Amino acid sequence: MDETSESVKNEIEQQQPDHTDSEETQLGPPTTTPVSRFKKTRKVTPSRHDDLIREMEKDRKIRSEEFSFLKEHLKKTEQQKDRFLEIVEAAFGTKKRRKSDTNDSDTD
Description:
This protein is mainly alpha-helical and 108 residues long. It has helices spanning 2-15, 48-92, 99-107. The protein is rod-shaped. It starts with a helix and ends with a helix.
């Protein structure tokens, strides 16, 4: 029996390739962090809650872009108004009261 079991072991060893000098079999510290080992690996369909949050984020980004556009537009119109008032002052020699002037005098 020893001979047969020994011959079977030899056959098994011959069938299996020797990986001792391969880089794949070298053991070292784990490459994953302890937390990432426990992450879900299967694909999960997003819940309705996740879909709603994603939609709200998209809407928020769109609104912030629109708001920034409106802020820029407001700045441009204020600059145009100031230029217009300067032209009127230069043409007629009268100084129109600006809102900023009235606000400054109210706080004095």
